[in-house]
Amino acid sequence: MRRTALLASAALLAGLLPWATAQAADDPAPAPVDRFEGEVPFAAQPAEGIFTWGGDTDDPPTLRLADRADAPEGGKVLAGSYDISGYGGFTHDFAATAPAHDWSAHRGIRFWWDGRNNGRKIPFEIKDGGANGEASELWTTSFTDDFTGWKRIELPFTDFTYRTDYQPVGGIDHVLGLKEMWGYALTLPAGTKGDFALDDVELYGTPDQALTASVTTDAPVHPVKEGATAKVEVTMATTGAQPLTAPVTVTYATADGTATSGQDYTPVSGTLTFPAGTASGATRTIAVPTRRDRAAEPAETIPLKLDVTGAKAPAETPQIVVDANGLPYLDKRLPIRKRVADLLGRMSLAEKAGQMTQAERGAMTRPGDIAAYDLGSLLSGGGSTPTPNTPGAWAKMIDAFQLRTQATRFQIPLIYGVDAVHGHNNLSGATVMPHNIGIGATRDPRLAERTGAVTAAEVRATGVPWDFAPCLCVSRDERWGRAYESFGEDPALVDSMETVIQGLQGRANGKDLDRADKVLATAKHFLGDGGTAYGSSTTGTYTLDQGVTKVTRQQLEDIHLAPFREAVDRGIGTVMPSYSSLDIVGDGKGAVKMHARGDMINGVLKDRLGFDGFVISDWNAIDQLPGDYAAHVRTSVNAGLDMMMVPYGYKDFTATLVDEVKAGRISEARVDDAVSRILTKKFQLGLFEHPYADTRGAAAIGSAAHRAVARQAAAESQVLLKNTGGLLPLKKRQKVYVAGSNADDIGNQTGGWTLTWQGASGDTVPGTTILQGLRRAGGDVTYSKDASAPAGGYDVGVVVVGETPYAEGVGDVGNGHSLSLSAADQAAVDKVCAAMKCVVLTVSGRPQLLGDRLGEIDALVASWLPGTEGDGVADVLYGRRPFTGQLPVTWPKSQAQLPINVGDTAYDPQFPYGWGLTTLTHVPRGGTAALRDLGARAAAAERHGDDRTGRALVTRARLLVQRHTDGHITAAVAKPFADADHLLLTGRYGKAVQKLTDAYRAA
């Protein structure tokens, strides 16, 4: 049908059908977007087309162009069916190869919808700005299917709001400009089967100045001390900063809140006018005087109602808040325990429930919920960042959330948390440290503490006072997708690296927590997450993560509990339980999720170990417990969890918790204990006095000084496993041929938990790749990623291979991952090592199985995931620093050996735990006589408590044994060698040398 015919038929329809919408006489003619007569194909970018999408393979709806006699326009409609469990819908994108469309001459978008009267809300999005339909801003509104049959749905552009929960490009300018539009999308209802029909999408009406002009206030909440005058700035702004074409008026009046008019404040009212021609950005001020009554009291609110004509009104009514004053908990001179007791005694059950609740920042589409639900905490999950992802934007975002708490009775500040597990890894430009497995390889507790201090300083400078780190798991199976989050397989090694807690928190007594360069730390994951059995996970396609750890009680104590005992002694502030289940042999309980194990959380952690911080759940972890939601809440709280990470379910959690307490299934004493623990940490952090970001340290984020620490950590984490003929260190005069997938990929080098949860390959973060480090070291370097460039005439090859990023169970071996090199990496190793002497570096979160290739490799380095400072790797390759790293885990010969760990009865690995050759270091010579002498001196150092001397003597003995083996590592050598390193870490220096003597004799 021609467009002229379309208009005629639409006019006829409007005259005949009572439910048709009439067109105003002065409105422009509607502009078609979709007629569904076949003019727009089913296709995806870059072509123009309609396509479906969904959360999984079953979620995208089916679409067809259906002949309908009752079609509101033409003879066809877009029809389809759906059965969506997650999310799903369809999109019409305009051609990415053609100019964007200009919708600014219209009031809104409308279409005909065949109603099913199911009461479901149906989100409708439009795409504004950016490069194309899949890289544009998403603006959303919705309509409700509460009618039957065809109805024209009109959606004014003024109804659309910027999506804060998801943006494909992270935002462009946050302004709905309408001049560069790329299409629309419609999300269908989830949870029930259904069908739909849609017809005649078009633009309609005359532009509304309220779309291009808006009135805002400087803040949604205006705290003011009692007796002072609150000043609310009202600003008028226009799209494109154009002067007003028509006047805008703002009528204002104070309204009833919790403050009493005439007693707590002087009521005000009036009208502000912005005449036509007013420049964009013009501001007027409304002053509201408050009165001093000298009575100690909670905070009181004064809403300021604004009625706007001629522009878009503020999204919410601003509130003036007379600050709480005179109450004991506000007196910083009082002991914290008294402040906590006073505040707790004043709080309602609902306020307490709010303090026990942590929501995700992405859930705050209505930030007023922070005050409405008295939320105690927010977090940024992996990849949940502000736009732009800068230190200033982080601080501004968190301060805006923190401001909301000032509208609550007691103005209890939020505690904001992030997973800064190897530096402030969510922040672009932060210093990214090696992952914990690399830190464990350094065997350097002082350096571990320094990495923690750098992380804390960068995190706190962005307004974040709480870090969900360190991970104290003892990784017992390298197939685990979280293996790199562990310092190693030996609890003694993990214990030794817990100096990182002091780096993060400062002194064990918590006296440093209010410093601008310290954060509250979290020991995770309690208890046994590193010991799950292969194949025991029931989470999706995971194989180990979130599975079952089956141990004797003694194994639990010695291996998995030991690091948490150390953490409590070091004053750890919070503890996070594991997703995994614990099955203690002989206790009769079977496999029980850790979030339900009150015997471990209340009984062991809090009562026996004396942990006095608070316990925070993992992300939605209580949903994995048996029973209904009330049972999830009841079980976890009674087991000893104090705060629940319920990212998008905070409303359900708070309501259910209150109901369970009122029903007597959770005691008020348990709630009071939980809230007391949370408030104690908030007071220790100084949040009541200083709730907003202290950004004085922001200039040091990613600084040369901080990167120097990361560079040292990267260098010390490198483990030299093989060095035939002393090939390393390289010499600058040598011609070096560099190849391999991980030589020049900083995303692979930094691994998972870098900017996003899973991390990503490629140029993701600022830093130096290993290739760049080699070049900056001054070497004569040629690079060919796939080793396809001619390989003749080179002195040595450096092949950098390994893994691509992953996190948690997504990275489990058997879940799309293996411990073997990729075919491309294998080919690169084969090509280079066949052509010249070669060094192979494995950049990975766990050992890589090299099989028969080990014989053709002259030098082998375990690089782990070294972070952003590839210079550190180059430092040891070129001899600026010596190789000193040692294996934090056993390096297996084959996957069939797994799990394999120090202390096993059968132990025959490729390289034993603790193995690590050195360069630039004198390696002692001698035989058993020399070892006897070292052993006697080590035993004497042990008796005298001279740890420094004892460690040095054991190290000399280790180097001697490694030289003697000359790379021939048998089971008889490997077992005592690994045992010696465990003994060293537990301070038994004499016995450690005895074990090394056994290894020497077996070599």
TrEMBL record:
EC number(s) per entry: 3.2.1.21
Catalytic activity: Hydrolysis of terminal, non-reducing beta-D-glucosyl residues with release of beta-D-glucose
Domain called Calx-beta: residue spans: 202-307
Keywords, alphabetical: Calcium, Glycosidase, Hydrolase, Repeat, Signal
Signal is among the record's keywords: yes
Segment forming the signal sequence: 1-24
Pfam assignment, any one: Calx-beta
Top EC class of this enzyme: hydrolase
InterPro entries in the record: CalX-like_sf, Calx_beta, CBM11, Cellulose_Degrad_GH3, Galactose-bd-like_sf, GH, Glyco_hydro_3_AS, Glyco_hydro_3_C
Family: Belongs to the glycosyl hydrolase 3 family.
Protein name: beta-glucosidase
Organism: Streptomyces rameus
